[in-house]
Amino acid sequence: MQKDKGRDKPADNITEKVLHINRCSKVVKGGRKFSFSALILASDEEGRVGFGFAKANELTDAIKKGGEIARNGMQKYELEGTTIPHEIISDWDGAKVLLRPAPRGSGVIAGSMIRAILEMAGIKDIMAKNLGCNNPLNQVRATFKALGNLLSREEIRALRK
Question: If we measure between CA atoms, which residue out of 117, 122, 128 comes closest to residue 51?
Fold first, then answer.
C-alpha cells in the first residue's frame, strides 16, 4: 500500500480514509479492557463514495472491518458540474447538515467531517454547514442522507409537471 496524505491506496484503486477513532474501556476484575470503534470513508476517485463504522478489540481490526463495510456501501451521487444541483438540509438524530451549491472556483467550504466526504465524492465547489451536534457518526450519516436526497434538474422538472 502507498501512503498519500493520510489515505491508503489499495491495489483496486479505492482510497480509504480514517475519519474518526474512538477508544472505549471497560473495567473488569483483572483491570481495564479496551475496545476500538473506527469510522472509515472509501472512494474510487470517480464520484463513488461510502462509509463504514465498525468495532473490534484491536484498532487494526476495527479499521479493516470499517473499510470493508465502506467499500460495500459505495454509491454515486447526483452532481451538476463541480457542485450539487440544489440546496438541501438533512438531519440524522441530533445532527443537521446544510449543503448549498457554490459558484465555480469557490472550493469546498465545510467542517472537517463533511469536507472529507465532499472532497472524496468529487465535489469541488460547495458550501456546507453543520447545524446540529458534533457527533462524527451522526454528521456523516446526515451528510450521506443529504447527498442521497439530491435530485437532478430533469427529475425536478418531471416532479413539477
Answer: 117
* CB neighbours of residue 155 within 10 Å: 12
Which residues belong to CATH 3.30.160.20 in the chain? 2-75
CB neighbour burial string for 3-34, b if at least 16 within 10 angstroms, e if fewer: eeeebbeeeeebbbbbbbeeeeeeeeeeeeee
**Residue-wise pLDDT tens digits, 68-106:** 999 999 999 888 888 999 999 999 999 999 999 999 999
Distance CA 151, CA 149 (A): 6
Helices 136-148 & 112-120, crossing angle to 10 degrees?
40
CB 88 within 8 A of CB 131: no
What top-level class would CATH report for the domain 2-75?
Answer: alpha beta
CA gap 55, 120 in Å, rounded: 23
Q: What is the pTM of this model?
A: 0.86
CATH architecture for the domain at 78-160: 2-Layer Sandwich (3.30)
- Residue 112 near residue 50, CB atoms below 8 Å: no
